[in-house]
Amino acid sequence: MPSTTTPLLQVENLKVHFPITAGLLQRRVGEVKAVDDVSFTIERGTTVGLVGESGSGKTTIGRALIRLVNPTGGTIRYNGKDITFLRESQFRPYRKKIQIIFQDPYNSLNPRLTIFKIISEALEIHFPAMGLEQRRARVAELLGKVGLKPEHMDRYPHEFSGGQRQRIGIARALAVEPEFIVCDEPVSALDVSVQAQIVNLLQDLQEELGLTYLFIAHDLAVVEHISDFVLVMNQGKIVEAATADAIYQNPQDPYTKRLLDAVPKI
Amino acid sequence: MKTYILRRLLLMIPMLLGVSLLVFVLVYISPGNYLDVLKAQRDIPAEFIAKKERELGLDRPWYMQYVSWLGRTVRGDFGESWSYRIPVIELLAQRAPATLALSLTSLVFAWAIAVPLGVFAAVYRNSIFDKLSALSAYAALSIPEFFLALLAVIFASQWGGFPTGGLSAIDHDYLSPVGQLWDYVHHLILPTIVLGIGGAAGLMRVMRTNMLDVIQSDYVMTARAKGVPGNVIMFRHVLRNAINPLVTSLGFAFSGLLSGAVLVENVMNYPGLGQLIFQAFMRKDRDVVMAAVIIGSSMLIIGNLIADILLAWVDPRIRYDK
Q: Would you state the pLDDT for residue B109?
């Protein structure tokens, strides 16, 4: 599907290696190639699914895109601009455009802060002109958007269920009006009945706000439902990249076939 | 919360009863009593000792002694020190300020060192600074308090600069008010350092471990994804969560305020409660021992309660109602 405009995200030969050290002097004895020479593109307004088992490097890709881990090599272009090796201060403007929703809704919210503080912290940084009243109004609006009530904002994370917390995580990500969201297994820690609600919420928000998603999952069934294009990862490399339909109807790589076999059938 | 605190305070009554009974029996069955020193002197007639025994009530069975002690104590009368011949309360009140001052200064000293060191060690993990501070903490924890106290006394006697013991100088009464205050402070410095170093080492290690735990938590990653600057992450997200266990430990520190310095007070000849209570144990000055035990246990129970209340105060997840 060739595009006339630049893709929102272009990743070329991305490498993320972690050193293995040993001994008293922390000598470097080797490295883990968590992400090894990976390339893909994401078009504006689409959802790309990234599938692979635990340890395949999919979460590391997501974190490298929003600079929670530093890439070892390769290039990441956002809207045509190379953002691979920007310093933290140079990358800050991109923290407004690129956001992440974490896997674990229980540990990704600071237990000492109220929901208002959690969400408005990002507003304080990226919209410094906003006053307290405006921030409260904005948080109330965001909570409404993800299906929560404005009066929830003065409560603490532990007062919510897993699904509600993930909604808070989504509201938190949306607060800065991002264009691109890395969804790092956003439903795998939730009950099956709640999973569908969250996936539907993400799809509704995409339609409403024109968002672009990288949807990371270990479960092909969830990805099939939401993705336009699917990447299959194994041991740090992308082994198959195709449209969702093609992957399901005609998987090429033996690893993809095994993943497909693992999806429970009714 | 109020009913919770009230319930905890009511629970003190059976606990204190149990503790006092146990200690009373232990003092009774341990060999000898207060009059042994007199008995050992041949020129004191047996009739005099028997008269003394009746006076102090030591001739009655132990449960009668306990009941009469208990009856007095619940009315607020802790009895009289046999060796000092003044009411126990008065005796304790004389000594308590010195111990309280020493405990508080060493607590502040320990916190002031431990928290920043622990934070820096965690932030610059595996750096030279981290390794050096881990090594010094290990050394500080390995050296027994009394040995450190001995070293301090030797230091003071060999090199001067600090008094070798006591609460105040011999010319204290002739000093100006400012001079008197400085005199007290001067005498406090060495015991404070000796008492504080061990505490600081332990606190520092706890602080460092907590910081590292929290730094690796998901919500810190969330904060980084929001674009929160590094130093704000450290204070708002990491430090505030990492300090919880230390805030709780303040409650426990309360229980040690009046009793935590027995060894150091004895070695450094600091006239506080610890020294008094130790001597009372040695002389079997029963009412002083019992009063000290009751006060110590009450402080421990109240300290635990304070720790629990502090925990609820710092952590919104913990509530005791319902």
A: 94
